[in-house]
Amino acid sequence: MKKGGIFILSGPSGAGKNAVYEGLRALDPDIVQTVSATTRKPRPGERNGVDYFFITVPEFKRRIDNGEFVEYVTYGGNCYGTLKSEVERLSTLGKTVVLVIEVRGALNIKRMFPQAVSVFIEPPSMEELIRRINKRGDNNEAEIALRLNIAAEEMTYRDKYDYRVVNDDLAVCVNEVYEIIKKENDKDDQH
Ligand code: 5GP
Asked: pLDDT at residue 92 above 50?
């Protein structure tokens, strides 16, 4: 398979974007993810430089002023941003670059890089999404309520994507997304 495309994996919190990315990576180690910067506190088990670059609000602002982000948003009271340096580093390696980001960032990336392929990962139902967000257990009740509200709004973005894939059975969803990646990377090959 030809590498090198940029793919946006997006959708509401709880849809399973990260699990889908992990599944893709297990299928093909040449699929890599940009590590975003965030001002959110690390959850147990999260590692700096692997899951995110965990930085302070002043540091995030400094990086905005420095023009270091391709896009950034405020989400649930915290800042998240895709670093230019990450996109450039991975693109020059000729890898298939995946951005796992929320919906506003996804649309901004699509505007800036029209050749990027956007995939909306959707839950099988709102009931299931609520169940998954509750099950995470790493957020307090106020955060869960906030995330549920945001998730409902995020669902309204789903028609703005190149592809929509339902994440009911994870393995099936991963395979569907992998097929999209292969198809789109092969298209690029013809140009
Ligand atoms: P979480 O706090 O659950 O790790 O992330 C909250 C939301 O922010 C998720 O939907 C996640 O995909 C998204 N996110 C993570 N990094 C970025 C980023 O760099 N840009 C944007 N726009 N969203 C991000």
From this structure: yes
